[in-house]
Design a protein that fits this description.
This protein is mainly alpha-helical and about 60 residues long. It contains 2 helices and no strands.
């Protein structure tokens, strides 16, 4: 009985590793597809710049 549990634990660890690799590969493919589209990249740059301006607005100008 104990040996079956250890075998199952090893099998589950193997599944977790492969699931992690699949998830990592899928995330990489999504990022790659997003970066291949120039319109999406321009949109992301604009959004990031707007967020940075909003975060640093109190430093850029003094409040009234």
């Amino acid at each position: 009985m104990k040996q079956d549990f250890q075998t199952s634990a090893v099998a589950i660890e193997g599944l977790n590793d492969s699931a992690f690799k699949v998830r990592l590969r899928r995330n990489f493919e999504i990022i790659q597809n997003v970066l291949e589209n120039p319109t999406t990249v321009i949109g992301l740059v604009i959004v990031i710049l707007m967020l940075l301006m909003a975060l640093f607005a109190p430093i850029i100008t003094e409040p009234n």
